[in-house]
Amino acid sequence: MIVLFVVVAAVLTSLGTQFMRKVALRFNIADHPNERRINMQPVPRAGGLSVAVVFTLVGGALILLAPQLQISPGSGAERLTDQGAAALLGGTLIAGVIGFIDDRFDLRARWQILGQLLISLIPIAFGLRILFVSNPFGAGVLLFPDAVALGVTIFWTLGMQNSMNFIDGLDGLSGGISLFAAVTLGVIALPTSPLLAALSFTLAGALAGFLRFNFYPASIYMGTSGILAVAYALAVLALLGTAKVAAALLILGVPIIDALFVIVGRIAAGRSPYTPDESHIHRRLLSYGFSHRGSVLVLYALTAALSILALLLTGSATLYAFVGLLVVLGGVVAYLSRATERTSK
């Protein structure tokens, strides 16, 4: 039955994406070529809104039918509560709508940031918190005071949105990475909360239906609507239950670390973190000589490896792995940067 919901989500998203493409063409909602983009002609965007809407509808049906289908919500700390489900599905839809407003009207940066902040408050409104992290220096966990838990939760949701936004620079890249993350979070949740796992797989199905049109060469882009909605959904899926935030941190290590390097580099250079440049890892792969499709597949492979690692590791080992990835990716970025400079000379 879970597989059936996944297939339905994929089919409906495929149909919804075609509808959104017609809407985008009708109202000129498109990414036009400029210094920030690699497309050489206008490409419709806002296709990700279909992912948000279908995930909300199919996920809602899954929750309503779960008792009849004997899909357990889990027990104890792993139980998917009504509040948690509302935060996940309702927040995803709200994020998609806020993103669509940006897609339609090309909002200024201050309004985009305000929208992201509002989205980051949704989990808080439903009582979700990051209450602890695995102790990297020994056994057990480190508990957060209430004020710190609030700040960390907002930072996690806001950071996820920006990470996925920054990595959305090649056809199919952000959608594919998100699909890997959704599947892996579902596998992690399956033994303790089958319903939460089913929702994760449903999100993966919706993303698969969208990727049919988004993989290179893309006929439609995810847009801000899809980026904010999918990033929010992944952030909340990691919040629900226990010990999933560290796993998500590792699974999504590529976009998270890429955003960290880019933001720090731009600030160090005295520029705005949102100033366009060639410092993203996917841009460096292109400059090094990888094709568009090849660059995406390399980052897919890295994300798949990190997903497997997240399934094998637990507790503080996951945090150590993330730190190791930070060092390795830093070295790779530095090497690609020097190699590109030598080639250009």
Would you mind describing this structure in some detail?
- The chain is mostly helical and 345 residues long.
- It contains 13 helices and four strands.
- It has helices spanning 2-26, 48-69, 82-105, 109-125, 146-167, 173-189, 194-214, 223-239, 245-251, 253-268, 281-288, 292-312, 316-344, and strands spanning 30-31, 43-44, 132-134, 141-143.
- Strand 3 (132-134) and strand 4 form a beta hairpin.
- Helix 5 (146-167) runs antiparallel to helix 8 (223-239) and helix 9 (245-251) packs parallel to helix 13.
- The chain is globular.
- The mean pLDDT is 92.
Summarize the structure.
This protein is mainly α and 345 residues long.
List the defining traits of the structure above.
single chain; 345 residues; mainly alpha; two-stranded antiparallel sheet; 13 helices
Mean pLDDT: 92
What spatial order of strands do you see in the largest sheet? 1-2
Low-confidence stretches: none
Tally of individual helices: 13
Distance from first to last alpha carbon: 58 Å
Strand content: under 5%
Topology as a string of helices (H) and strands (E): HEEHHHEEHHHHHHHHH
Query: What Rg is obtained from the alpha carbons, in whole angstroms?
Result: 19 Å
- Percent helix, as a range, is over 70%
Instruction: Choose one word for the global shape.
Output: globular
SSE class: mainly alpha
Outline the biggest β-sheet: 2 strands, antiparallel
Q: What is the number of strand segments? A: 4
Set down the secondary structure blueprint.
Blueprint: H1 2-26, E1 30-31, E2 43-44, H2 48-69, H3 82-105, H4 109-125, E3 132-134, E4 141-143, H5 146-167, H6 173-189, H7 194-214, H8 223-239, H9 245-251, H10 253-268, H11 281-288, H12 292-312, H13 316-344
Helix pairs in contact: 1-2, 1-7, 2-3, 2-7, 2-8, 3-4, 3-8, 4-5, 5-8, 5-10, 6-7, 6-8, 6-12, 8-9, 9-12, 9-13, 10-13, 11-13
